[in-house]
Write a structure and sequence with these properties.
It is built from 13 helices and no strands. The mean pLDDT is 87. By secondary structure, the protein is mainly α. It is 72% helix and 0% strand.
Length: 303
């Protein structure tokens, strides 16, 4: 059951949520000299549960809308869902029960944090939960609208909210440096989610899911993908200049270079499978950059 849960929830991608949480908590340690390990652990559990809920509610609604079925039946498409619904490994009822169980766990953690740190700890979590749900659920379904709403939602959910939320949990106040710190990791994570649309954009178009890749077309979307990488690098530099990161935090920049190299190997039009290296490099660059930022902040806190 544990092995099935890990696959159904796509547990392996949870570091993209845990990294910004760690950054926010370390910001409190470095700038304010405070760090409560128990509050940090509860924040980690709540954030992880919220992320896994997001993965599973996405699968649930994409299955109901026919998007995941279309991806499975399209020849030149790479399915990115868990496959537990499309392959009938779990029933919809069982899948939904686990999904909402994760939501309950995340909400419980949010309530505990609000009691000890302040109401804004719950507000940050609630905003993340609403974004996760309405990303694919009606009536909003802003992940289907192709107007950039989904990219903004990911930047908030995997950058601004977890970094600033984790910082607030430790200090019970907010700091502009936490916002600056959230932007490079948030943009890199947005890039992961944006690039994954290339793997099945024809199936998305067929199912009526209007991602920016569907709306703009492959060539223009690739240009925007490169722009997001540049923006992540620029915000990292700004964070270091503004003091949100130590100046040696700029060594996170080379971690983005392998992703830049992959762009040079892509043409104006590519098969879906040709984008697998781009996805792999996106995940690798995001995690490595985030880990380097964490290490640099930790070293600064010890000095």
């Amino acid at each position: 059951m544990l092995k099935q849960f890990r696959k159904a929830s796509r547990f392996g991608v949870v570091p993209v949520m845990l990294i910004p949480v760690a950054l926010g908590a370390l910001g409190a340690f470095v700038w304010d000299g405070v760090f409560n390990v128990w509050l940090f652990l509860i924040t980690l559990v709540g954030a992880a549960a919220a992320h896994l809920f997001s993965n599973m509610i996405n699968d649930l609604w994409d299955y109901k809308s026919g998007t995941d079925i279309a991806a499975k039946e399209t020849v030149d498409a790479v399915s990115t869902n868990s496959g537990f619904l499309t392959n009938q490994i779990w029933s919809v009822r069982k899948f939904a029960a686990v999904t909402w169980g994760l939501f309950a766990l995340a909400a419980g953690c949010g309530i505990v944090l609000a009691i000890f740190s302040g109401i804004w700890a719950f507000v940050f979590g609630a905003l993340g939960g609403l974004i996760a749900y309405f990303y694919v659920a009606p009536p909003l379904k802003f992940g289907y609208r192709g107007k950039g709403y989904s990219e903004i939602a990911i930047l908030l959910s995997f950058g601004v909210l977890p970094v600033m939320g984790a910082y607030y949990v430790q200090t019970s106040h907010l700091d502009l440096r936490a916002l600056l710190l959230s932007l490079p990791i948030g943009l890199l994570t947005t890039l992961i989610l944006f690039n994954h649309h290339f793997l099945h954009w024809q199936a998305d178009r067929q199912a009526g899911k209007r991602t920016l890749v569907v709306v703009w077309g492959e060539q223009r979307a690739l240009t925007f993908s490169r722009f997001l990488l540049l923006l992540a690098a620029v915000t990292l530099i700004i964070s270091a200049i503004a003091g949100a990161l130590p100046i040696y935090g700029l060594i996170a920049l080379p971690a983005m270079f392998p992703l830049y190299q992959v762009y040079g190997k892509l043409k104006s039009h590519n098969t879906s499978h040709a984008y697998l290296p781009l996805m792999g490099a996106s995940v690798k660059s995001t995690q490595l950059s985030g880990i380097i930022m964490i290490v640099c902040l930790f070293i600064q806190g010890l000095i």
